[in-house]
Prior knowledge:
This protein is an alpha+beta fold. The strands form two sheets. It has an eight-stranded mixed beta sheet with strand order 2-5-4-3-7-6-1-8, sandwiched between helices. A hairpin with a 7-residue loop joins strand 3 and strand 4 (about 70-80). It has helices at about 20-25, 35-45, 135-145, 170-175, 185-195, 205-210, 225-250, 255-290, 315, 360-370, 385-390, 395-405, and strands spanning about 10-15, 30-35, 55-65, 70-80, 95, 115-120, 125-130, 155-160, 295, 310, 325-330, 350-355, 375. The protein folds into three domains: about 5-175, DNA-binding pseudobarrel domain (At1g16640 B3 domain); about 185-290, no CATH class; about 295-405, 3-Layer(aba) Sandwich (Restriction Endonuclease), CATH 3.40.91.80. It starts with 11 loop residues before the first strand and ends in a 5-residue tail after the last helix.
Amino acid sequence: MKYGQLSSLFKSFAWKQLTAVEADATASNGHELNSSSRLREILGTTAREQKKGAGIATQFHYLSDSDEEPLEATGFLSWYDSRKANPKRSAEWRLYYSDNSVIGQEGRAVAGDFLVIAFSADNETATVFIAEAGSTSERQLQWLFGISDSEQLKFGMADVGEEQMIDLTRAKILEAAGIIVPAEDDSLLEKILKKFGSEFPTTAVFGKFVRGNLTKIRAEDDADLALTEWMEREEFAFRVLEKHIVEERLKRGFKDVDDFVKCSLSVHNRRKSRAGHAFENHLAEVFRVNGLVFERTAKLENKAKPDFLFPGATQYFDDELVGLVTLLGAKTTCKDRWRQVLAEGPRVKKKHLVTLEAAISSNQLSEMRQHKLQLVVPAALHPTYSASERGGIWDLATFIESVQSKQSKVAI
């Protein structure tokens, strides 16, 4: 099971904080990024000018926590010596970008946003990621590329290491940034097709199939490891099957544009909904084997249906027992949707949220603490947070221990 290496997508990258003169049309109309000696390590001293047909084809992506999908645009970068016409002066290399909806006169990017430019192996293409300052997307980009000195106003530069493998967390970050990572495994596909044929099984059935092929993983021994392994394997297996089914659909062709759009939306929506259901199903299995009593989507006030309620609605509506009730929301990714959990089950004062989101921004973590929302993140993702932040984040084992302690005081 492999998504491959990050170096298969990008060879080298440069990063910096955007300045007003680079992104603000009222400060400058030059559409240029300030160069540095580090950037010249990547691009050298050979001009790559679009007006001469040698520009660098570029995909632009703007990432914000308030947007469900990244803003994307196609354009180019030009690398040139602005002092070429004056040979008596030393060269001054600049990186020009074409005006687009991500950066430029009409672009979303502003001073202070975080910029990463990732180049292909031959520097023939580039991908520009711009993340809103202070956002989760910014922190995830920094973690993905291993960037620690992120506040510099001059370009930093590094090569992508061969050891940097793409796992589920990295694949999700790349996908959120508009980069789809292929999942290929012929032997796994053969096993899936033998079991299910060229049809998508239900999420519950597919999850059980995945867990059945990971018999050495026991959630009663290590709940955090089990959850992350199960999710990793199911997501990968689903992508392998999806690729096969969609390729077969493409071979049949489409009768018109509307038919194509309908198919595309179906693929997109299926990915999102199945990931959420898979997450909840694997969580339920973890809780079951650890002896927890719970209800899924119990009906509470105002038609609220929390993902998990421990032990259940009966105790929730009992004035004497409600203090021993635990409410847990489950979201594979958070963005601003974590606030939905706060409105569920008003009788439970402290809510819990379990997520697979890596490197949530410090601003959102602070808001969660202010709203008395306890964040639960599998242990494998804790290193994506700073040491000072990890103390306030529970792993799954800690959550289970908390519920077990309460459950021992309730006759069920």
